[in-house]
Design brief:
Elements (H helix, E strand, L loop, with lengths): L9 E3 L5 E3 L3 E2 L8 H11 L3 E3 L7 H11 L7 E6 L6 H15 L4 E6 L11 H18 L2 E7 L3 H10 L6 E5 L7 H9 L3 E5 L11 H9 L4 H11 L3 E2 L6 H6 L10 H8 L21
Parallel strand pairs: 3-4, 4-5, 5-6, 6-7, 7-8, 8-9, 9-10
Antiparallel strand pairs: 1-2
This protein binds adenosine-2'-5'-diphosphate.
Amino acid sequence: MSAFDSQNDRFTLSNGVKIPCIGYGTWQTSPGQIADCVKNAIKAGYTHIDTAWVYGNEPEVGDGIKSSGAKREDLFITTKHWVTERGYKKTVDAIDVSLKNLKLDYIDLYLIHWPCVEKISPEWKEINADTWRGFEELYKSGKLRAIGVSNFQAKHLNALFEMCSVRPMVNQLEFHPGYTQWDNIRFAQENGILAEAWSPLGSGAVLKDPRLVEMASKYGKSVAQLCVRFALECGVLPLPKSTDPVRTALNLQVFDFSISEEDKNTLLTFPELGFSGFLPEDAPADAIA
Ligand code: A2P
């Protein structure tokens, strides 16, 4: 059984900041729907909302937060820096756009969305370090309570470690049965970095798999709930998303069962299923979200 017994439980980041153990993801939602989704999610009990500048929905996410009536200090809001804003100066300026969009005066967690990689520039290490210098300054100024990265592999993190003064506190990675990229998760965890799961339900692609349906039914749970619980039991913070209020609420109901070691191993070694195809080295960096 993992240490998590309730949706109010939190992971502790390396700087001591506490982060609610399940977040509500907002990628791939249609314009016009996400404000209500965020408001519903907060009503259902989510206190942690994950967005990104490139999703194009920061203003609507901000509207949803405002209309929920929740106190700012009771919420944990993550957004992400986009690849067009790499470098120190652009990074320092980009945060003000996200703050204005979200109608907030600080962000709880800001992430580099994708690393710059060798294929994009031979100076990739310096470019990531320069962007990170902007993150460090914003962190020290108090505009950000915590800073991290997303989609970084070990080599990208190792290069950053050599040039940074504050280490990333989070690495957000694709993670679900059928694509756990366990080496990258383990590397993060071994370095005191909290791993978060984007697409913990495989963007819906794993939910009808008969092997997973059978496993989930043993616990009296849906495959979505099995996936959320699986992430938590691996020490990975899941960010499930749903535009449906009932499914949004159901995805939080994962604290009344635990997954057997045998089933956890099956999930960790599941044949590839639902992989997005997004890899930092292969994908054109300005075309991936
Ligand atoms: P919907 O918005 O119609 O609920 P991920 O979080 O891995 O990105 O997956 C999101 C996808 O999974 C969306 O297509 C979402 O569709 C679907 N989804 C989310 N929760 C559930 C659930 N409990 N049951 C079935 N589908 C779900």
